[in-house]
Amino acid sequence: MFKGITRRWVFSTMLLIVLIIILIVTGLIYGTAYLFNSEVEKTLTTAGSELTSVFENYETDNSSSFSSGASSYIENFRHKEQMEVMAVNSSGRIILTSTGFSYDENEDVKDFETAKNNGKGYTFRNTNTTSGEPVTSYIRIITNHNGSVVGAVRYVVSTTNVNNRIVIITAIIIFAGLAVLFIVIFSSSYFIRSIVTPVRELSETANKIAHGDFSTKIEKRYNDEIGDLCDAITDMAKDLEATEQMKNDFISRVSHELRTPLTAIKGWAETMQISGRKKLDRRTFDKGMDVIIKESGRLTGIVEELLDFSRIQTGRMVLINEKLDILAELDEVIYMLKDRAVNENKHLIYDEPVEIFPPVYGDRNRLKQVFINVIDNALKYTPEDGVVAIEIKYDKKTDADNIIITITDTGCGIPAEDLPKVKEKFYKANQKVNGSGIGLAVADEIVQLHKGKLDIESGVGVGTTVTITLPILSESKESK
Q1: How far apart are CA 68 and CA 151, in angstroms?
Q2: Which of 327, 342, 354, 393 gets the highest tally of CB atoms within 10 A of its CB?
Q3: Which residue, among 219, 295, 243, has the nearest Cα to 426 in the 3D structure?
Q4: pLDDT value for 434
């Protein structure tokens, strides 16, 4: 019947609340009964307190003398309308009563012996008359100057009205307890439903998202933690949908990137195989081999990029760090890409500094990979006759611990809404230019592994500036 949060609520919170209410109701009922009975006993005690003066200095133990004194006391008793008063002799027999009705002289008064033997000289007793009427009795022992018991006075009052009041108040307390319990159950049930229902919807929505349905929506009903959770899952679904779309675009781009060199390699290989039987001329052979080598290198680069990205995502990329000259590594990369810039009719500008730069502690090949990826992107997005400028600097005053490399192009630029995302995996701001879209993400991760930073500034139609900050080799590492 109950399960999950509802079950825990019923068997922990609700049962505890019910137990507390029962204890409170029981305590109130017993407290009410105790208060009323205490009032009855107080009334009887007050009535019996005058016995001290009536039988003060009582010196005889003669029964007729006690009977005479008790008869006088009973005859002048002021509260005959409220209670009945009886005289009991030293043998525990009723000898006089204020009602004037006949009484059984042989009737034992059971509370007489109790009062005589309990050391207090009095006792209370709740009982019923022969007619079934509930009464409370109070008996007080009378002694002479020697301490001998000469008799007792017994007061009896009906508790019918008191019991009726106790019953009425008990019924009111029980009704109030049930009302409180109903309100608690109703309000708690509403509260639990306000949690369980959205959580169940969240669970169903999360299950749909887990199965790839990112378009599902959650209705936000409350502006609280549950509402915040609804917003978080909705945002997560949107992010997952965007990531899924980027992943699909990435797969499509990579497939295209892989298909292009594979098609060229396969086409020229088939051409050379067929033409080889007919004595392929040297010029065609050289051209075909150039295409195959070039496209194989391009294919290898794509696969290596994917492998690097996978290593970074799984934390398996290991740097082979060593002391190196960052100027030499940057020079080598620029030299590699200079011919490409010339062939594409683009200007690659770099003025090698004359001063000596401090060494960097890093992975030679990985840092070259970063430079290649960033400069390759700059050339890729720069139009003909455009400029890609590279600068490396180290200022002891302002950049005492870092070497800063900037690559600036005059390309199309990156829109402001895309700029924060260009370093994310699978993201590609410009879909018209070839590329997998993970090169910049890989470069950023490699720079971070070197405790550096890769920052990007761009403006549409102005160009893009990539700033790579690398820490210099510290003296502690150099000494090792």
Answers
A1: 12
A2: 327
A3: 243
A4: 58
